[in-house]
Amino acid sequence: MLIRFLRSFAAVVAVVAVLAASVDSLAAQGGTPESGVVLLGNGVHYLDVGVGIMNIGEKGSMGAKVELRFGRKLGGIAPAVGGVADSDGEFYGYGGLYADLAYRHLILTPLLGLGVYLRGDGKNLGGRFECRPQFSQREHPRWGECRRQYATLVRQFGSHI
Fold first, then answer.
1. Could you tell me if 109 and 98 are in contact, meaning their C-beta atoms sit under 8 angstroms apart?
2. What is the spatial distance between Cα 123 and Cα 5, in angstroms, rounded to a whole number?
3. Which residue in 62, 67, 123, 140 is deepest, having the highest Cβ count within 10 Å?
4. Residues of the chain above pLDDT 90, percent
5. Model confidence pLDDT, tens digit, residues 58-79
């Protein structure tokens, strides 16, 4: 289990190092969202909530995910915490670090976390502690409209995280 964790960790570190080198070279050249990858600084907190079917192709079970990514960053990196659970009694709670990278109209978010897995009636993953390499992407609204759209959301919902 330790060797599998170290291999996963080394792969994620290598990808982040390559991305960081790309970001540094673009920043030195005055990179903009239109010209390449840009490391984003402080932003708002993100709360991701999802529900769906887990373990498709096997018996299948209902599952849910909650993840909070903090907006205050240090050097472009911030903490995240989350959990995934399903109807078989599986639970995975994790904490980690993430960064937001802007590329054209996309926001790319690599996250590396470490967590505790409670099996319940679910799969045997080989251990209680598991590494969570995660990569997500979302579409960013036009750069000039971002603040206006955020202000509209705050007015509609009355508050934000």
1. yes
2. 18
3. 67
4. 31
5. 778 899 999 999 999 999 999 9
Segment 83-95, tens digit of pLDDT:
999 998 899 999 9
Q: Which residues of 81-109 are buried (b: 16+ CB within 10 A; e: fewer)?
A: ebebbbebebbbebebbbbbbbeeeebbb
How big is the CA angle at 101 (ends 143 and 149), to the nearest 5 degrees?
Answer: 30
Cα 126 to Cα 152: distance, rounded to the nearest angstrom: 47
Q: 3-state DSSP: the chain helix, strand, coil percent, rounded to 5?
A: 25, 40, 30
- Asked if residues 72 and 78 have their Cβ atoms less than 8 Å apart, the reply is yes
Q: Record the pTM.
A: 0.66
